[in-house]
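Standup, Tuesday
Yesterday: got the pipeline producing structure tokens again.
Today: sanity-check two examples.
Blockers: none.

Example 1:
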Amino acid sequence: MTDGLIDLARADTVSGEDAERREALADSLERFIENKARLSAEHPLRYLFWESTLRCNLACRHCGSDCLRDNSTRDRELAPEAIKHQLADIARRYDPRSITFAIIGGEPLIRTDIDEVGAFAAGLGYSWGVTTNAMLLDARRLASLKASGLSTIAVSLDGLEEEHDALRQHKGAFRKVSEVIVRLVADPFYHAFDVICCVSSLNIDSLPAFVDYLADLGVPQVRFTPVFSRGRAGRKSGLMLSGEQYRQLLTFIALSRQRRDDIIVTLSEEGYWGPTWECRIRDGMHYCGSGTVIASILHDGGITGCPSVSRRFTEGSVRDKDFLELWDAGFGRFRQDRRATAPDSCQVCDHWDLCEGGGFHLFDPEDPAIVNCGLRKIGEMGECHG
């Protein structure tokens, strides 16, 4: 079954130069689908997350990991030597220069030993980075990370002052993070730096002013990711976007990418949005590499695809087996069995080849009947049989 977008590209209603462009588009899409199948078969690791902790210094309303402001999970965290062992083992198989090693949480800066792990990773040749709420990123800690070879940094800022402080449930958080951003812009030692903004019903209407604010600070890029139902950001949280608000977000991102040259605005890898929006809201087509090119070592040693997928999709633990053994022998549901793992409505959908369920993190094994279909949300499903 081919995606409707390919059929549309090959429609016989046009001729001449336009027909040639459409044929070229159809060929490009078919190569894209073939490449996804190749990656699924070969699963070359390209991005490794380490969820260093579930502890956090905040209690955000939209936290998908349901992180805790206490030490109840500390005794389950992996020691630095355990992660170093896995990094060294992986570097004997893969060229570490082709892999990004990302340290996340919880709030990773709660752990003082991630600098040690980062320095070890850099010594092996990995490019490594952190994603942080920036509340603990003072000048001294930044200097330590810099000395450890930090090459990428993503800072979470979820709108202007009122919205960010409300979502983070911490008055003054916005101003604190803004100070850190100013410090980062003034000292561009890193290879890449951007701001990640979780879009919810609280901040959807203030995004234009928010992007203006970031551009004025000198931020090079902002990534928007819609909130999804996981952890504290459940369906009854009041934070979920409506279909109209999703369209508002997509329109805003597409127009910002078209009109702005002072800041890069993009949609994070979040779902498939069909022919009207794909390639207008980010640099390329939607592709979920979870379990094919992306893997995560969780705080307790569990192994899975991207860190946002359900914890019911873990493939084992590095406490029992080395990562590469699990990576090679497991992950069937992320690769050849992905369609069987998706919601029932995906099984006969014409958009599957390009969509593949919109992202593995949207699959809910606790309630497989739930459909998180982007095209249905925005009313652009078309004549799909699904």
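Example 2:
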Amino acid sequence: MFGIGFQEMLIILVVVLIFFGPKRLPDLAKSLGKGIAEFKKASDEVRKGIDEAVQEHEAETEEAGTVSPPPPGDAPPSDPPPSAAGDTEPPPSAPKG
């Protein structure tokens, strides 16, 4: 449990018992348990929300039959624009003359 051995756990419990006293120790343990339970519940809700969002995205992708486009920064460079009309040579397949 958290890489803490039995001896370390025993020392921590003795220090907590001395610091808080035997009267407040049960209340402290109860509030600690409630806090851990709330944290687990919140983390489960977040995990569930992420899983649902991933499933929705996968379903949309399957329906569209395509993969989502890459982000704008990752787009390959486009061809350079054609130059002015007078600066171009005729295409190689066109007859010369």
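Quick observation on example 2: The two ends are 88 Å apart (CA to CA). Residues 25-64 form the longest helix (40 residues).
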